[in-house]
Every structure is written in C-alpha cells, then in structure tokens.
Specification:
Elements lengths: L1 E5 L10 H4 L6 E2 L2 E2 H11 L4 E6 L5 H6 L8 E6 L9 H4 L2 H4 L4 E4 L3 E3 L4 H9 L4 E7 L7 E6 L2 E7 L8 E9 L3 H5 L12 H10 L4 E5 L4 E3 L3 H14 L10 E2 L4 E3 L2 E3 L4 E2 L4 E3 L2 E3 L4 E3 L2 E2 L3 E3 L4 E3 L2 E3 L2 E2 L4 E3 L3 E3 L2 E2 L4 E3 L22
C-alpha cells in the first residue's frame, strides 16, 4: 500500500498567516502540521508516500526532505491545471501509484490514535473503498453519509439537511478502481471533482464500501480557531516521556505540568509556565506568564507578557504588558506596548485579512 498526502491549496480562511506560509507547515505543538500526518502514515506501516504541492513550491520540500528521517520514501508532485478538487489529487499521482491500493490523507486533518487499525480493516475486510467518519455538531459543513442498517447508501457534499450526524473526514482508503470511478465523474457546480462522487460510483456499482468511526478526537484545521484547538489537543495528548527540558530555567521560575523546553532556551527569573506548553530552542522568556495550551517557536523573545492558548511562531518578539489569549502570532511578528512609545496610542501596521482586538 502507498499513501498520498495533500500539501497544496491556498488556505484563504487562514490568511494573513498563509500569505507567507504553506498551511501544512504551520506549527502545531511546535511541529509542522504535515509532520503529524507523515508520522501517522509511517506508524501504520506505509512508507511509500507522495505529497502534492502548489506549482513552484519549494519550502515544503526543504522542510520534509526525502522522508529518510521517518524511514520513508517521499515523492513530491505538483498540482497541475489549478484547483480541481480533492478527488483530482490522486488522479495526478496515478502513474506513481502504479496500480497500488492507497491511503489518501488530507494533511490538515489532525487525529488522535493510530491509523494502523484503519489500514488493517481495509485489507482484512477486502474493501474497495473505506472512509473514516467522525460525529460532529455541524455536519452541513462536510461530506455526510446516509447510513441504513449499518451500511452507507449515499454521500452528499455539504448538505442543507444532513442525513446523519457523521462527517466524512480527510482519511480515505481506495483500491485502484478509484481511477475507474474518476473517469466517469464530472466537475461539480463549483468546478471541482468531488470525493463524494467517487464513493457514490463505488456504491452504485455494488462495490464493497465501508467506514470506520474515529475514536477520540479529529480536527479539521480550516480556520484559526481550529488551529488553536488542534494545538491544544496535541499538547494535551503528549506523553510524559516526550517532555524534555534542554534549556536553562532560573531557580525562581515556576514550571508546572508538562512543559517542553528546547535547547538553548532561557526561562528567566520570576516566570511562571503552566503546561501543557511547548517552547522551542533558543527562546528567551523574561518576567512572563505562559499559560496552558501554548506553543512557542524557535528564537522567540517574550518579555513582560501573559500568554494563554496561543501559537507563537518562530522569531516573534512580544513585549506588551498585556494578556494574549487565543492568539496566532506569525514569524518575525512584533507585539509591543503602546506605553513604551510616544505619542500615546496604538500604532498598527495591518495587512489584508488581519484580526485585531484592542
């Protein structure tokens, strides 16, 4: 079995962060989002992986490399012809797949637990198509299955009146017949090849279609609030053995709970850090309170601040004498106190799609 992971798209709902960052490289628990997906795939025993990219993409390849750090072989392929929908991604890797069944993983989905049982269920059940489902409170935002007597009978994309409380997550397993299905479907009204149409072809042609409900949690990181929740979930699930202190902590600083501190980082006098928290390497934190569910990237400088439930990217500088909550602070961003400059007031340099609360 092989795997295809998504690494393209424009992630317009996450702007302005995604003006300069590939969404799949946004750090969650101080690790690029797509790294979590790669780890899940390799853990399931799949080591031949292809990742699609936007045309001209180079950063993703630099961060990921050839896959050897995970014991995998990773191949990259560019998305050709523009955004043609989720189902078009495997089509563009058809030659690389070479007749293999495959796991299709939308890499902006974060899940708890192993994918091995999902892959094993596909093989042992001799399925032609298998999808992962999750119960959600707002299924109209997703592809939704209609289930009768424990079997899926139809799928509908973003229905006005959902037929169940399940959402189709970004985890799919397919036999090579995927491409027979693809050859029969046409773009939807929004101009995209829909994965729901692929499944409906399998159903209409009496193929063996199954599902497995995700246990624990699943998060689609489509919006800023979703990123923060996924970051919190990952930090909370980090095993005690994964917590490392490779930095320097002043004897008057207080560290509570699961707190990881990277190499070369300095936690100064009077600081309070309450986990779960992940602090990258070469950070300096002084006279600050870092609250639960916060990740801080490498080379960040934080002074006289209080931060809770936030993601601070690398090289950010924060010295604001204010409490930041549910914040996304991008790379090289600077947050300072209006009291430190004259005249009094709030100096703002705000780009497109920014969100500011004063």
């Amino acid at each position: 079995m092989k795997a295809i992971l998504t690494g393209g798209g424009r992630a317009t709902r996450l702007r302005p962060i995604t003006y300069t960052w590939n969404k799949h490289l946004i750090p969650l628990a101080n690790k690029p989002m797509i790294f979590h997906a790669i780890e899940k795939v390799v853990e399931a025993g799949i080591t031949d992986i292809a990742i699609n990219t936007n045309p001209g993409e180079t950063e993703l390849q630099k961060y990921i490399g050839d896959g050897s750090k995970w014991g995998a072989n990773i191949h990259f392929f560019e998305q050709r012809g523009g955004p043609l929908g989720i189902a078009n991604v495997p089509k563009q890797a058809e030659e690389w797949l070479n007749g293999s069944p495959f796991l299709f993983y939308l890499s902006d989905n974060i899940v708890l637990g192993s994918l091995k049982s999902f892959a094993d269920h596909f093989i042992n059940g001799n399925f032609d198509a298998l999808m992962a489902l999750a119960r959600v409170s707002d299924p109209h935002r997703f592809g939704v299955p209609e289930i009768v007597d424990g079997k899926i009978v139809y799928l509908e994309e973003k229905p006005a009146v959902p037929k169940s409380s399940y959402a189709v997550t970004g985890l799919y397993l397919f036999s090579p017949e995927f491409f027979d299905a693809y050859s029969t479907i046409a773009p939807s009204a929004r101009g995209e090849y829909e994965i729901t149409d692929i499944y409906n072809w399998f159903l209409a042609n009496k193929r063996n279609v199954g599902y497995q409900e995700i246990t624990g949690w699943w998060k689609d990181t489509g919006k800023p609030d979703d990123l923060l929740e996924a970051n919190a979930l990952l930090l909370n699930d980090r095993a005690a053995g994964a917590v490392r202190n490779e930095g320097s902590v002043d004897e008057t600083a207080i560290i509570q709970g699961r707190v990881s501190i990277g190499k070369g980082s300095v936690i100064g006098a009077g600081c309070l850090v309450r986990g779960p928290v992940s602090i990258g390497s070469d950070c300096v934190i002084e006279r600050s309170c870092i609250g639960p569910f916060t990740s801080i990237g490498n080379n960040a400088r934080i002074t006289d601040a209080e931060i809770d439930h936030s993601i601070i990217f690398c090289d950010a500088t924060i010295s604001c004498k204010r409490r930041l909550v549910d914040a996304l602070i991008g790379k090289n961003a600077i947050v300072t106190s209006a009291e430190d400059t004259k005249p009094n007031g709030h100096k703002l340099i705000i780009g497109d799609n920014a969100v500011v609360e004063l």
